[in-house]
# Entry
Amino acid sequence: MADAPRKLLEVRELTMDFGGLRAVDSVTLEVCENEIVALIGPNGAGKTTFFNCVTGIYKPTRGEIMVHPPGGQSRKINGFKPNRVTEMGMARTFQNIRLFQNMTVLENVMIGRHCRTRTSILGAIMRSPGVTREERETIDRAYALLEKVGLVDFADEFAKNLPYGAQRRLEIARAMATDPFLLLLDEPAAGMNPQETRELDELIVRIGKEEGIAILLIEHDMKLVMNISDRIYVMEYGKKIAKGTPQEIRSNPKVIEAYLGEGEEDA
Amino acid sequence: MDYFLELFCSGLTRGSIYALIALGYTMVYGIIQLINFAHGEIYMIGAFVALIVAGVLTIYGFSGFSILILAMLIAMIYAAAYGYTLEKIAYQPLRNAPRLSPLISAIGASLFLQNYVLLAQTPDFLPFPQLVPDFAFMEPIAHIIGSSELVILVTSAISMVALTLLIKYTRMGKAMRATQQDMVMARLVGINVDRVISVTFIIGSVLAAIGGVLVGSYIGQINFYIGFMAGVKAFTAAVLGGIGNIPGAALGGLVLGLAESMAAGYISSAYEDVFAFGVLVLILILRPAGLLGKAVKQKV
# Structure
C-alpha cells in the first residue's frame, strides 16, 4: 500500500471487564478502507466480546472506539446503542445464526433497510407517491442483494426453512442491506462443509474487493483466513499477542505456540 | 331461535370489545414480555375524554354521528399520549430490571391513573350519551341486533383488519415483528427499538380508547373503575387466545364474549363471570399456551 490508507475503524486500548474477569485486555486494532482483516485466537480469547463492544451490545470498561465513516464526521462511539452503530455504517453477523426466523427471506433483507428508509405509519396509510417509490426501491435493493448471495429463488421462503449455509449467506445479505462501510463477520464459516466454505470465501472477497466494503472477521478456519485476509490480529486470553500479514502470522512463534500448532494438527 | 341470535350478537359485541382491548395487552407482551396492567385505565380514560368532548360539542350544537367521530378521534389522541407517557415514565427506565419490577410499576401506574380520575372527575357513575343514532334500516332486526352493536362490530372489525395490514405490510410493522423475535438483533440491523416500543404502546392505547368510547355509548354510563374489570376480562381474552399472539387475542375476545353472553342468557346473568373464567381454566388445562399460542421453549 503506497499512500497511507484511510482508517475506518480505530480501536484504542479497549478493555472489557465482567466483574473480576477481564475478557478483553487493552486491545488496539484498526481497519482501513478496502481491507479484509481477520481476528483469530483460541476459543474464549475474547474475540466475540470485542465485537460486542464495537457494535454497542456491551459498553466497554475502558478504551476508545473511533469510527471514521467515508465522507462523514469521525465519532467516538463508546456507549452508542447498537442501532446507532448500525446507522453509522457498521453491520455484523453472529456466530450462532440470528435471523428473524418467522419472516421470509425477502423480509429479512428488507428489515435491514429500516434505518435507511423513512416512511412513517401515517405515510404508509396515505400511500403518497414518495412512499410507493421508497417501498419499490427497498424491494429492488433487497432482491439485488439476494441475487449477490445467490438466494433469489428462496425469497418467499421462511428464513427458518433455509439450509444452514444459506442462512449464513442470508445473514450477510441482511447486514449489507444496512449500507455498511464496514462489515463485522463473527465466524461466518462455522459449521459449513468445505464446498460451502469455498463459496463463502468467494463471497467475502467479492464483497470486500468489488463492493468496497471493509471487512473484519473472526474465523477459526485457517485456510479461509490465510486465503483472504490482508492483515491478521491474534488474541489470546483477552490480549492481542500478534498482528501482521498472513505470512508474518504463519511464522510468528508466539502464534504458533498459542494457536496454529493445535489448529494444524487436527486439520 | 331469535333469542339465540340475540344472545349471539350481544356476545359478539362484547367479544369484539374485549378483543380490541386484548390486542393492546398482547402486543405489548409480545414485544417486551410485560403485562401492562394500566392498559384498562387507558380504556377508561378514553371513555372519559369522549364524554367530556361529547358534552362540549352538544353545547355547540353538533349532533349525532359527527359527535361520535370527533369524540372518538380526540379520545384516541389523548389515549395515545397517555400510553406513550406511561411507557416512558413507568416502563422504559426499568427496561433492564428484573421482570417483576415493571410488573409492580404497572400495578402502581394502574392505581395512580384510577385515583387520578377519581379525584379529578368524580367517584360516581356519569351518564354517557348514546352517540350512535338508531338507524332506520336496522328497524326490522332491531330485536336481534341494535344499531350500537352494529357500529361496535363494524368498528372493531375495521380496526383489527387495519392492525393486521399494518403489521404485515408496513415498514413499522416489520420492525415490530423483528423486535418481537429478537430485540438485540433488531437493534443491530438499525431498528430504533425504543421507538418501536413507543409505537406499540400508542397503537394499543388507541385501540383501547376506541373500545372505551363505544362501550360508554353502548352501556350508557361510566366511572373511574370501569377500566379494572374490562382490563381483567381483556387480559383473560389475551391469555385465552395465547398471549403475544394477535389473531389469538381477537379469537380469545370473541370466545369469552360469547361464553359470557350464553351463560347470562341461558343460565343467569349472575353466573356470567363464573362461566367466563371457567372457560379460561378449562382451555388453559387443555391447551396451556392458549388457543393459538405456541408452546415456546425458553431461550437460553
